[in-house]
Design goal:
mainly alpha
């Protein structure tokens, strides 16, 4: 029986040997920290740009939603790889992980191409928001949004399996992807 082999070959995961409160803290804690860091990023950005003047502050405020969407898009490949590869590893199907990582790379490439193609359309975003095309806020916002898109390309293209702690060393998966 598959389950008997699996149970016999795997020790009890640490999260199952601690209290529910400790397990929830272990799982939820990093997510809360990431959310706080993302919020702090926007606040720090707004603080420093605010020192430049009201035009720049308005432009940055106009870009805040687009910046958030850009960051979320850049993580799409990684979200899927982390979730699905952890599931496959936990189910004892390590041979499927390489395929998941390869799919994550393709998603990352697709997101980067989509971002690159969207950069010339930044003006459409500000038109929808109702910014006056002749205003300095419009021009500053376009510059900031374009820089955000171009700056996010390396983030979108990073390998979706950077974290070695999720499944141990990733070298076996990379070599399997090449095969």
């Amino acid at each position: 029986d598959y389950r008997a082999r699996l149970v016999g070959s795997i020790s009890t995961p640490r999260l199952l040997s601690v209290s529910t409160t400790q397990a929830m803290g272990t799982i939820v804690g990093p997510s809360i920290c990431i959310g706080l860091l993302r919020t702090a990023y926007g606040l720090a950005d707004q603080y420093w740009v605010g020192m430049l003047g009201s035009v720049e502050t308005i432009a940055l405020g106009g870009c805040s939603y687009a910046t958030w969407i850009i960051l979320v898009m850049c993580e799409l490949g990684e979200f899927g790889v982390q979730a699905i590869s952890a599931f496959e590893e936990g189910a004892g199907r390590r041979e499927r992980v390489a395929r998941v990582v390869a799919q994550g790379f393709w998603v990352s490439i697709f997101v980067a191409v989509l971002l690159a193609l969207s950069a010339p359309m930044a003006s459409l975003y500000f038109d929808v928001l109702g910014f006056d095309p002749m205003s300095p806020e419009y021009a500053a916002g376009l510059s900031y949004l374009f820089a955000s898109v171009v700056g996010a390309l390396p983030l979108a293209l990073r390998p979706p399996a950077w974290r070695k702690d999720v499944l141990g060393s990733i070298k076996p998966y990379i070599s399997e992807c090449k095969a």
